[in-house]
Write a structure and sequence with these properties.
Blueprint: E1 3-6, H1 10-21, H2 23-42, E2 48-49, E3 59-63, E4 77-84, E5 89-97, H3 109-114
Length: about 130
């Protein structure tokens, strides 16, 4: 069974979402987050790898904040994580809205995640993070 480790600021992400969404929409979003986490735990290699430093050791699981999104909409949420096969552990770094704007939005999940202390989760040289099972 895969172990789960959450960044200490992961709860800050949930608080931020609760503040932005309101009670009813936040409860719907929590269900979507739980489903995304379950999907990651079932297949941690399925999500796309991030390409840009300092998050290149992480993956992104895209999903919707609502259970029934409008047609032709793109997933508005991201779950950022790192799987370490040697430890059989998924490290969840952040969850939140993807806010793709020309000028970098400070509330965008990637901008929030870049500011976090995650050096203790950095891969060691002998780890093979490129496994694509």
């Amino acid at each position: 069974m895969i172990q789960e480790v959450y960044h200490p600021m992961f709860t800050d992400d949930l608080d931020f979402l609760a503040q932005k969404l309101g009670k009813r929409k936040f409860n719907e979003c929590l269900i979507q987050i739980d489903q995304a986490i379950e999907q990651v735990l079932r297949n941690p290699y399925k999500a796309a790898a991030l390409k840009h430093p300092p998050l290149q050791a992480y993956r992104k699981k895209k999903f919707f904040s609502a259970p029934r999104p409008h047609k032709k909409k793109r997933p508005n949420m991201r779950l950022l994580y790192r799987y370490v096969p040697g430890e059989n552990t998924v490290y969840f770094l952040a969850v939140g809205f993807r806010m793709a704007t020309k000028h970098r939005n400070p509330h965008d999940i990637y901008q929030r995640a870049k500011k976090r202390e995650f050096s203790q989760w950095e891969p060691k040289d002998d780890e093979n993070e490129k496994n694509t099972e």
